[in-house]
Amino acid sequence: MSIKNIRKPLMLTLCMLALPLMGCHDENTSGDSSEGPKINVDYSSAKAAIDSIQGAQNYTVATKIVENMNIGTADEPVYSKITTNFSNYFTPTYTWCDYEDAEEGYASKDGAVFHLNLYNDEIIASDAYVDESGNKLTSIYDIVVSPIPAASFVESADANAQTINISNKNARLAFIEFIQFDETFFADVQSFTASIGTSEDGEQALVLTMTGTDETVITSTFHSFGSTSVNEVAAYLNSEGSGAAVYDSTLVKAMDGFLGNNFTKLTYESLNYSEDNPVIGEEIYHSDYWYGGYYPDSGYSIYSLGYVSLPQKTYVDESEGLEVDLDGAYLFYLNETMTELRTIALAYPAFTTNVSDMAFIMDYPSNMVLWNHNLQFMQPYEDPSLGLDGEMFITYDYYMMYDFFEIAQVMNSLQAATTVMSCVLIDLIMVVNLDNAGNLDTVDFLFDILLNGSSVTLQYTYTDFGTTTIPALDEWMQTYIRDQQ
Questions:
Q1: pTM for the complete prediction?
Q2: Which of 21, 50, 68, 460 could, after both became Cys, cross-link 445 (CB 3.0–4.6 A)?
Q3: Structural contact between residues 334 and 304, judged by C-beta atoms closer than 8 angstroms
Q4: Contact predicate 280/298, CB 8 Å
Q5: For the segment 153-191, what is each residue's pLDDT rounded down to a tens digit?
């Protein structure tokens, strides 16, 4: 299944977006085409065409995907052919994909490379991309991978054939990545070919076709070499003030706080937000450990537990003459007040593998796509009635909301409290509160949804950025844990 489908406002895990985005129209081959290197395509054979377009930076790829999808249930499957059409436009200075409700691309301007999205029927830009040394990227092709098969993938193909088979594993994986299917689709690929065909306009074109054992058929047609442009994107980039975004400094502080993987999340008695909602516990997020604890008077303290990361470590108890090699994440329990280490299970890791990355295991909020050049989706907002201190931002973007929905495990929380018949995502509000010195104090996410037809606002509060610890566990690790020799 295409990864891009999660960006469409469809019913996914019982949730859908209430207001889909508007589409981007009038993509064509007129206007500022930013032609780039002159390419003379040789359509005498499939191999010749591929060889002749190496290095091309101005062309269109029109893709049609036909999937045989189950629109019924697992017990009573009903299969239907679902067709998806979209085009990718490539130029030396920008790219664009017109996938419905997920229009996006990359662009370069004023010495910076940035991401573009269509949001609320307007193009918005991300901040500038940088390399590992912190230097700004200057070419979109530092990020964008060309979908044109490498000449080496077909070097042994028949030089005169109109259709050739591409069996190279890397070529197939590259195409799967381009169409944004999950990599697991590779095992289902039945054939992958390149042929000489025609575009919708009747011009000669290179056609890549991949078929799957599940009757999926993907066809990508390469055409309009040297004449491709997208009027809306070109007009946006030519407009005054367009270019890489400079994010609000308050948003950046919130992002840095979460990326530090050190903070506390409050656990409220009720899922539905109210100003007097009692706090009954907390989740401790630390790069070395995670703990979900309930306070003694909550009635839930027996469910408190945590995991500590001990990759390639050795437990050494000199008084007992005991040494135990460790590698993975291990279950532990604190006392009811979370001040003493009660039990830690070192006999075997808590998970089936020796995975030990806490941010990965517990899917920390640092993994949110919001922090990956997407803060432009959080736009200034005001609602004094909410009763929260701080600067407010809001997004209606389905991808940002759905990602938060998954990482915050909203469905699990809802199903623990009620039977979920329907859930509609409305908006996600972020309230960032700084202390008097301008440092990050608290971040509240208010998630507005329609749950079984009723309006519900879920609250997620994070605090103690950069200062969250479990002293008893820290002391135990310092006393007994050593690096393996």
A1: 0.86
A2: 460
A3: yes
A4: yes
A5: 999 999 999 999 999 999 999 999 999 999 999 999 999
